[in-house]
Write a structure and sequence with these properties.
- Helices cover 39% and strands 18% of the residues.
- The chain is of the alpha/beta class and 439 residues long.
- The chain has two domains: 5-219 and 410-434, Glycogen Phosphorylase B (Rossmann fold, 3-Layer(aba) Sandwich); 231-407, Rossmann fold.
- An eight-stranded mixed sheet has the order 4-5-3-2-8-9-10-11, sandwiched between helices. A six-stranded parallel sheet has the order 14-13-12-15-16-17, with helices on both faces.
- Helix 4 (137-149) links the parallel strand 8 (129-132) and strand 9.
- Helix 8 (265-275) packs across helix 12 (375-387).
- It starts with a helix and ends in a 5-residue tail after the last strand.
- Keywords: Glycosyltransferase, Transferase.
- Residues 239-399 form the Glycosyl transferase family domain.
- InterPro entries: Glyco_trans_1, Glyco_trans_4-like_N, Glycosyltransferase_grp1.
């Protein structure tokens, strides 16, 4: 759907307000009919503010999508932010210079004006679709590139921002109104919006977002996320447990998460303390600004000897840490899809998490795990899992089967590819600009 003039003007103003040079400084392109290349693979530009070395759900989702689209025959490149002010380029990845925004959100960055070389390379490559994954710095470029090339703009809405109001607003009610207005404005230019769960789809409906919305759960590489199979992998599990000082008879309750307030890990500590099982160790995989308060809370609850903090884990190594667990636990209500819960399930871990609509398709009650609503329910479910080996083994099998049937990366890629095709089909015949980008 072409942008209205008013949207174009506001986009340019927003671009300048964010400290990003507007594309209006470039010569106006002359549009000419595009010859359709024969048998050329679909070219997809993925844009994201988050990328390696950061570890979070957005990065994991975009990496999985990139691999899935390539496996389906697409050419894929990524436009993201560098970890410094100098733009960089590597195989298939453009990095725009950026500055730290850690005062607003840990490890966040704000993009600086993109170099003309990066811009020229992207436009010369001529993607067929731009698929944005974040709503801030790189979204400005996604929107402008799509408009300049007259190609579809697809956007994945990953984050429930109203769960992060404590970062920017003392009032959750005011924060929700701000988020609703922001979401309507940001998503207005998109030809299609992808969300990972029905929970997020309903939320955008409540925000009065009027763009086409498609629910597509994020897939996983099931060859990577799986239980230990080989003797070497089983030895690795024992080695990791030993490195954390976990005895052979202890059971590992695992959580993989950024250590931030919105992840509600304080409640997990309280639940572990209340369950009073000396045979358990809670392993918190990840790091973040809330680590200090969590360590203090564990000491105050008298369970610091049964809690382990791993710190930052390399993204390529994360599956190793899932394999040391016996049960995956969590109390976050800020999830859009519960990607770590899906990864844990694919690695054969039963799930024990606070009830949340985003997990309705992941936690099959009594089969792949349970959703609890109170400390008493948590303790009862944990006792059942740890004291009944047959029940635990059955849940492990059910978790693996459910992951295999619903969480494959190939189906994820095919679903997204279909959205691209629908977005292309819903646009007027393409006219390709003859671009002149100064050196």
């Amino acid at each position: 759907m072409p942008l209205r003039r008013s949207e174009d003007a506001s986009g340019g103003a927003e671009c300048e307000a964010r400290g990003v040079r507007s594309f209006t400084s470039l010569p106006r392109p002359r549009r000419v009919p595009r010859p359709r290349p024969a048998q050329r693979p679909l070219r997809v530009l993925l844009t994201t503010d988050w990328w390696e070395p950061v570890v979070n759900g957005v990065v994991a989702s975009v990496q999985t999508l990139r691999r899935a689209l390539v496996a389906l025959g697409c050419e894929v490149r990524v436009l993201t932010l560098a970890q410094g002010i100098r733009p960089q380029q590597e195989e298939g990845v453009y990095r725009i210079g950026s500055v730290s925004a850690a005062m607003v959100y840990d490890r966040a960055r704000i993009g600086m004006p993109a170099s003309r070389r990066v811009l020229r390379d992207v436009l010369d490559w001529r993607p067929d679709v731009v698929h944005s994954q974040c709503e801030f710095s790189t979204y400005v470029w996604a929107r402008r590139i799509a408009r300049t090339l007259s190609i579809p703009l697809v956007h994945t809405y990953h984050t429930i921002y109203e769960d992060y109001t404590h970062y920017y607003s003392p009032s959750r009610t005011v924060g929700r109104k701000v988020v609703a207005s922001f979401s309507r404005h940001v998503l207005a230019p998109a030809d299609a919006v992808i969300v990972p769960t029905q929970k997020v789809s309903r939320l955008l409906e409540e925000y009065r977002v009027r763009r086409p919305v498609r629910v597509i759960p994020t897939g996983l590489d099931l060859e990577r996320f799986r239980p230990a199979r080989t003797p070497a992998e089983r030895d690795d599990v024992r080695s990791l447990r030993a490195s954390l000082g976990i005895a052979a008879g202890q059971r590992v309750l695992l959580s993989v998460s950024r250590l931030a307030k919105e992840k509600n890990l304080d409640e997990v500590l309280e639940l572990i303390a209340a369950s009073d099982r000396e045979d358990t160790v809670l392993v918190l995989v990840g790091d973040g600004p809330h680590r200090g308060p969590l360590e203090q809370r564990a000491r105050a609850l008298g369970i610091s000897d049964r809690v382990r903090f791993t710190g930052v884990v390399e993204p390529a190594e994360i599956q190793r840490w899932y394999r040391i667990g016996d049960v995956f636990v969590g109390a976050s209500l800020s999830e859009t899809q519960g990607l770590t819960f899906i990864e844990a399930m694919a690695c054969g871990l039963p799930l024990l998490c606070r009830r949340d609509p985003s997990l309705a398709d992941v936690v099959v009650e009594g089969r792949t795990g349970w959703q609890f609503e109170s400390a008493a329910q948590f303790a009862a479910c944990l006792d059942a899992l740890l004291d009944d080996p047959a029940l635990h083994a059955g849940m492990v099998r059910a978790a693996l089967a459910h992951a295999g049937a619903t969480c494959g990366a190939t189906e994820f890629g095919r679903g997204v590819l279909e959205v691209y095709r629908q977005a292309q089909g819903g646009r007027p015949p393409r006219l390709l600009p003859r671009l002149a980008v100064p050196a």
